[in-house]
Design a protein that fits this description.
By secondary structure, the chain is α/β, with parallel strands linked by helices. It contains twelve helices and ten strands. Strands 1, 2, 3, 4, 5, 6, 7, 8, 9 and 10 form a ten-stranded mixed beta sheet that branches.
Length: 325
C-alpha cells in the first residue's frame, strides 16, 4: 500500500467521521436529554437548568429532563456527567462552584473543569451583597474594618457550608481584610436573616437577589456588592473595589456544559438553541430574578472565561488560607 493510498484513506475516514457527526446533529435530539443540576431544588443551578430546559424542550420537541443530584457540595452531580457518555444526551448545569471553586476546596474533586467538559453557554451571573444589622456602628466597608480592628473577635458574620459563596466571601473578607471577625455557621440563609434583623449577628454576605427584599424594607443595610459594577437595582451600594478597602470581585455564574468529547455539531446546535432561548424576554427575566446579569459571551470568550476562573479561584482560596480537604 503506497503513501498516497494511506493518505487518502486517512482523509476519507476523517471526512466520514465529520459526516457522521453532522448527520447525528441533524437528527439530534431524538429522545429525552438528561440535564444534571448538581444541587438541591430551588437554587441557582436548579433555576438555570429548568428555565433553559423548559424552553429548549419547547424549541426542539424533546424533553430536557432536569435531575437534581446534590452530594458533597456540587461534586457528585458534576462527577456523574464527567463520566457520562459524550453523546449530547447527558448535560450539566455548571457554575462558579463546580467549575472553579471545587478544585481549590477538594484535593481530588474527581474531574477537571476545563479538560473534562465543553462549556456550551454561560447565561447569567449573580453578585453577593454584604449586609449588616441596622444597629451596627459602620455604614461602609472602611468603617467596618476600622470597627473590627478596634474590637477584634467581637463582630460576627453569618455563614453557610464551606463550599458556598457565603462561606468563601466571609472567609475572604476576614483574611484579605486582615480583620478578626467571628464566623458563625448556619444551615441556611433564613436563620441568618432572623438573627441579623434581631441584632444577634452583625454581618452576612448573601446572594444579592435574596438580600434585596430585606434592604428595600429597611430591615438591614448594604455595605458593598461583590460584582465588577454596581447592581442595577441597588445603585447606591458601592462595589468592594469602589470602597477602596478590598480588592476583590466575585460573581456566581451559571451555564450549561457537556462532556468533553461530545460531537461539535451537537454542541453547536445546543449553542444556537440556547442563544435563541435567550432572546425570549420571559426567559431572561426568570434567570435574572431581579438582580442577575444576563451574560452575552461568544464561544471563545466563554472558554477563556471558564479557564481563567478555574485558575483564579483555587489560587485565591489558597492565598486566603482555605486548605483543600
Amino acid at each position: 500500500m503506497n503513501h498516497f493510498t494511506l493518505f487518502t484513506r486517512a482523509h476519507l475516514l476523517a471526512l466520514l467521521s465529520l459526516w457522521g457527526a453532522g448527520a447525528c446533529a441533524q437528527t439530534y435530539p431524538n429522545h429525552p436529554i438528561q440535564v444534571i443540576a448538581p444541587s438541591t431544588a430551588g437554587g441557582g443551578f436548579d433555576l438555570v437548568g429548568r428555565v433553559l430546559g423548559g424552553k429548549l424542550s419547547e424549541q426542539l420537541g424533546q424533553q430536557f429532563v432536569v435531575e437534581n443530584k446534590p452530594g458533597s457540595g456540587t461534586l457528585l452531580g458534576t462527577q456523574t456527567i464527567a463520566k457520562a457518555p459524550a453523546d449530547g444526551y447527558h448535560l450539566l448545569v455548571g457554575g462558579l462552584s463546580n467549575m472553579a471553586l471545587n478544585t481549590g476546596l477538594y484535593k481530588q474533586p474527581g474531574y477537571d473543569p476545563v479538560n473534562d467538559f465543553i462549556a456550551i453557554r454561560l447565561v447569567v451571573s449573580h453578585s453577593y451583597t454584604l449586609i449588616a444589622t441596622q444597629s451596627l456602628a459602620a455604614n461602609n466597608l472602611k468603617d467596618l474594618f476600622a470597627l473590627a480592628k478596634a474590637q477584634p473577635g467581637k463582630l460576627t458574620i453569618g455563614s453557610s457550608g464551606p463550599g458556598s459563596g457565603q462561606f468563601i466571601l466571609a472567609t475572604l473578607l476576614r483574611n484579605m481584610g486582615k480583620v478578626d471577625l467571628l464566623q458563625v455557621p448556619y444551615k441556611g440563609a433564613q436563620p441568618v436573616y432572623m438573627d441579623l434583623i434581631a441584632g444577634r449577628v452583625d454581618l452576612f454576605f448573601d446572594n444579592s437577589t435574596t438580600t434585596r427584599a430585606y434592604l428595600e424594607s429597611g430591615q438591614v443595610k448594604g455595605l458593598a456588592v461583590s460584582s465588577k459594577a454596581r447592581a442595577a437595582d441597588a445603585l447606591s451600594i458601592p462595589t468592594l473595589k469602589e470602597t477602596g478597602a478590598l480588592d476583590l470581585e466575585m460573581e456566581t455564574w451559571f451555564g450549561w456544559f457537556a462532556p468533553a468529547k461530545t460531537p461539535l455539531p451537537i454542541v453547536e446546535k445546543l449553542r444556537a438553541e440556547i442563544d435563541k432561548a435567550m432572546t425570549n424576554a420571559e426567559v431572561r427575566t426568570r434567570l435574572q430574578q431581579g438582580s442577575g446579569r444576563i451574560l452575552h459571551l461568544s464561544t471563545q470568550e466563554t472558554e477563556a472565561f471558564v479557564k481563567s476562573e478555574s485558575l483564579k479561584w483555587p489560587a485565591l482560596l489558597k492565598q486566603a488560607g482555605i486548605e483543600p480537604e
